[in-house]
Protein 1
Amino acid sequence: MKYILDFDEVIFHTAALKQKMQELHIFESERGPDVLLRIQEADPSFSLEALLFPDARAFLEVHGRDCFIISSASSTVVENNTDVELQKAFQWEKIRQSGVEQYIDKTRIHIVAEEKREVLEKLRRQLMEQGELFVFVDDRERYIREAQELGIPTVWMCRQQPFFHATPEHMPATPEFVRISSFAELETVVHTWEEEKK
């Protein structure tokens, strides 16, 4: 099984980085490697490696050679998307300082300005030609929908949200997408899929 993973809020605790930026009065609209340098100068004890989710680190230690990353450099706040190149540089530096490259080869890490469709299509073709099973994991619905439109099996990482929507009668409703809140749940989902394919 090959895993195509988003970075922010799937592997990396982006909300914690944003909180640190707020504490240091660094606006979220600011982008570029110098932002991370300013954080380190203000607080030398702060480490981006510590912001890898523990379950993500454990997963990558085992499956890193089977993983790809497709990460969008764009902010969810449209007004922050002012300089694409600075945003991409900021994203690359976040990934580099997080230590992810010790698990996933840099050639398998893709930073896009915003859209993931082109890279997803390319990886889908490549992995299908190799006869590989694969899954795409993201925390944003728009990218989950894009991947599904391309025929890519998807799992929605919802670390801070409930696993299912409840009906008015407070009964679990069948979600439109497979949702998980951890990599342990991802492994369970994948195991089930693999068993079904036997």
Protein 2
Amino acid sequence: MTEKNFWELIDYPVTTEKAVKMIEEENKLTFKLKKLKTKKEEIKKSFEEEFKVKVEKVNTLIDRKGKKRAIIKLKKEFSAGDIGVKLGII
């Protein structure tokens, strides 16, 4: 398996009210993925490389529109808010 850049895997960060609340309260970021077949491990590795942080866990779900989302929880020592600011979510 070849290493993929994080931006090749995701379509865009989700910026709903709920997603922003998750950044502030739960240290989680939400992204819409390009492909349904993207694996959690791929997402984790590429996210850690891109933002130089440690990921606690990755949850994925397929929404009503048939698109896959990744919810990335960062370890306590890293701030989802900082990444949110870099991405322009907050």
Protein 3
Amino acid sequence: MNEQENNAPFFRFEDLRIYAKAMDYISWLYRVLDVEFSNGNQKVLVKAFLKSAHSIALNTAEGSSRNKAQFLYYLKMAKSAVRECVVYTEIAKNGNLLNEADYDYSRDKLIELTKMIGSLIASLQRIANVSESDPMDMGQAPAFPDDMD
């Protein structure tokens, strides 16, 4: 094998910028929200926050291995996880787990993620709509309705 083949990701989702951005956000959260030093109620919030952040990456990864219609579904689940993180960001700020700079950083990253996911959803829906008119594409399920965002 040549060097390029060795460096190519085996899993398709590893090439997605959304996945990389989600992983960066998760890493940042682990640094900022130190679960070890959280009290009981804070620990519950931190774990739930991290679970929602993980869901962004997990749904992106899982959906990428599916057909277009299923990928759209998983991307919409990832977008829902972004919204959960927006709520957790606000709760964490109000509970003094995030300072103003971290709050702003979290919101900026979540806005970026939701825009990226929305763009990929729109792109896949355009492709799905073209495919629906193609009689050779028998396995294509109909696209999901547009998101309200």
Protein 4
Amino acid sequence: MDVVTQAKTTSVPGRMYRGESHAARKKERQDKLSAAALEIIGTEGFKAATVRKVCREAGLTERYYYEAFGNAQGMLKLVYEQQIGRLASTLYEAVNSVEQTPTAMAEAALTSLFGAIKKDPRMARVIYIEIVGVSEELDEVYRKGQRRFDELLVKLSKPLYPEENTADLDDLLMASALVGAITQVSRDWVLANFDRSITALVNNMMALVVGVITHLQTRRPAR
């Protein structure tokens, strides 16, 4: 009876081992594997991130790779979403730390964006290059990532102009156009090995973003 009880006890999910729960250990393993995948994908490309290579980089067995990702596309999806979340948080914090005017907010957001991707080219490669064209499923993940920034731009910019001024416009469509332009410039910059200064990129993109916001502050809806 004691043997049976003991066997049941040791199989209970969430039990402590060396002071850590099952969930905490699982999260720690996933974090190690994600960091390893980011390093390889971000420096060598998605195709180079084999199961064996990622596990060797993380110092874990293949069993935990499949526990964390399921498969190679699951790995890329998770790493992409982590980097998108990281970048969105960086932008949001930068914009909320300055005066809430179009010029100050645009400058903070763009400086933060270009600074972040230059500081960590691995992130830039994952979110702008490696995620695209792998499969229809991952293309949809990429589109969702872009929409996240569209929605963030709408959220941050709407207080800057009277709502009635855009009654005949689609806020998300306008945001998508701006985010798309910034994404294209960012991708080209990464592929060109950061051939322009951050200041040059910020100044040019500010002309576009501030121009749109200023226009929305004074326009009148079509009748």
